[in-house]
Amino acid sequence: MRQNTLQLNRFVFTPLTVIIILALIFGPVSCSRKAESITVAYAPFEATALFWVAQDQEFFGQNGLNVTSRKYETGVGSLDALLNGEADLAVGANEFPLVGRALQKAEIRTIASIAKSEFIYLVGRKDRGLQQISDLRGKRVGTTLRTIAQFFFGRFLELHDLKIDDITLVEVKTPEEWVNAVVNGDIDAVVTAQPYADAAQHRLGENAIVWSVQSHQPLQTQVISTDEWIAEHPDLVIRFLKSLALAEEYVIHHPAEARAIIQKQINVDAAYMDTVWSQNEFSLSLDQSLILAMEDEARWMMANDLTNETQVPNFLKYIYIDGLEAIKPEAVNIVP
Fold it and tell me: How many CA atoms are closer than 13 Å to the CA of 248, on its beta-carbon side?
């Protein structure tokens, strides 16, 4: 018996045996941690940067996710895709369409903001008499309805003693329309996001006049999902956010490479990236400014008859804090 015990001890400490034992122990665990497939609807704006960096650098794969991405032209489109069951997560919708859906009692929540940005502009034609903001009265101005561009334009008018009824609002729905409608003269001005505002300005040349309409209030690009999906997949929420946190670190430490990734995604030149990069703060957050912005936008919707609701929702119910708090607690600054 003693001889067998000594032989067993020698056997246990053989290097090859240790490797085999470790493989037997950890092999089944690795197999059980196979990549989980999720579908993400996204909007093609530079504010989506962290998502694209995470894809490019394979951070999703490192966190056990197999991500299928689907492109939609607007943040509203990506959010609609989520609610239509076409995706598990929406990336690129900002807080404004989230407010609209909250007023409709949609069961959705944001799990993080991934960027704070100022890149929405009014681009007008000087040959239509646009020299100063008051000249907008009576003009045909295009924008995409239900988007934050409509909100910022409405607030911009109010700050300059104009009302939405003082202009003729024309809906333009596609990237081609955002640029071509004003360039071809179908409308007198357009309110749209970059890079389309820049494209319209470039094509109009000296005939263009440009104003920022955000009044120094940044929009916050969101990651949104349904209450049901979040409740069923809290671990996937954390894995997704971990991937974005790695992307945030990459942007900080490799800004040139990150810019190149985004430049390729939105198909613009380096000069454009030089202009817009500083207009975005790419970081994960959930802070009180998001609540305040959503409350303000809800009141604006009510005042402009864009909803039948008369009470501002409790927007804490539309924010899922647990995921971001688990991986980056310092980024959560919301008053209960």
Answer: 19
